[in-house]
Design a protein that fits this description.
The chain is an alpha/beta fold. The chain contains 16 helices and 8 strands. Strands 1, 2, 3, 4, 5, 6, 7 and 8 form an 8-stranded mixed β-sheet that branches.
């Protein structure tokens, strides 16, 4: 795993490459020569952690985009194996075909609570990425997601959606099959499901592709995830016909978890391991599991009928209210003036 991380170092991570190599060299020397170098190795690991803390505490928004897209970040299947080890996965929308860009599975979390986990799947390598269309779902993917949500409602199982997509697939075939209708249908139907829904942005939360499974009673984001109406490249291409301006656009889009939290559009930020989720899958997935268990415990105190639907409706009406937006913009301007 370390060697893969070394080959996928982001540009701003390069200062830690030398420390990582020294750690690997000392570990190799310790094994080959059978000598104890644990003190030196531990000192270097401490130095590495401090360096990563400093780097990741001052990332620009574009650098956050790069972290959210890191090829070694945990994928949907990594979360599912930790959350529901006994999972049973489902295929097909019962109308046209199965879309591998949307993966859904039901199982028991902590052996006692049945939940449905639905999310975008990008794949773990180039072959998987192509097969899963890089996590960009077609209409049949969103229809499969809705089918599984209704199944979860039938079994009284809470729903967890894990969002990680650049956006819904924008191809001609997807439009011919009713892409906008499929997403709109999901938005409407998720408001009416009589089971709790938790949505977590684990990597990229792009446009309607994210919203298609993103109507939650509670919405969380991973510390280095992003959530935006459009990708920085797409926005730059539209405004300036120049995708190379993506890094500039990212600053204007304010798409990081910290920005979205400031806008009061999400409820919680999930901390990632030092240096990002791609450096420690187990710690990242355990953090997500802990948040889900806390949410499940809170959800038990709410009636899963009209009370649940009323609270969900009020949550989104409040977000869209004129007074809320006006006060929010006032707060943002005030904070920017104080910088």
């Amino acid at each position: 795993m370390e060697s893969k991380k070394m080959s996928n170092l982001l540009s701003f991570e390069k200062p830690v490459a030398q420390i990582q190599r020294r750690i690997e060299d000392l570990e190799k020397e310790s094994q080959e020569k059978n000598i104890d170098l644990s003190v030196s190795i531990e000192q270097l690991r401490t130095e590495l952690k401090l360096e990563l803390q400093q780097i990741f505490s001052q990332l620009s928004r574009w650098e956050k985009v790069m972290v959210a897209r890191h090829p070694e970040r945990p994928k949907l299947i990594d979360y599912i194996k930790v959350l529901i080890p006994d999972y049973l996965y489902f295929c097909g929308d019962r109308l046209f075909r199965d879309d591998p860009a949307i993966f859904g599975a039901m199982g028991h979390i902590n052996d006692n609570q049945l939940i449905m986990v639905i999310g975008h799947y990008k794949g773990k390598n180039t072959r998987d990425n192509i097969q899963c269309n890089f996590g960009m779902a077609n209409p049949e993917g969103y229809r499969k997601a809705l089918r599984l949500m209704r199944l979860a409602e039938k079994f009284r199982a809470p729903i967890v959606t894990l969002i990680d997509t650049p956006g819904a697939y924008p191809g001609i075939e997807a439009e011919e099959h009713g892409q906008s209708e499929a997403i709109a249908m999901n938005l409407r139907e998720m408001f009416q499901l009589k089971v709790p829904i938790l949505s977590i942005v684990t990597g990229e939360g792009g446009s309607g592709g994210a919203l298609g499974i993103g109507v939650g009673d509670k919405i969380m984001m991973m510390e280095h995830a992003i959530y935006s109406v459009i990708s920085p490249e797409g926005c730059a291409s539209i405004l300036w016909r120049d995708a190379s301006k993506a890094s500039e656009v990212a600053e204007k889009l304010k798409l990081t978890a910290q920005d979205i939290m400031k806008f009061k559009l999400i409820d919680e930020i999930i901390n990632e391991p030092v240096g990002g989720a791609h450096r420690n899958h187990r710690e990242a997935t355990d953090s997500v599991k802990k948040c889900i268990l806390q949410w499940l415990n809170q959800s038990e105190k709410i009636s899963w009928n009209q009370d649940l639907l009323d609270q969900r409706y009020e949550k989104y009406i409040r977000l869209a209210s004129f007074d809320h937006v006006k006060n929010l913009m006032k707060d943002i301007r005030s904070s920017e003036e104080n910088l």
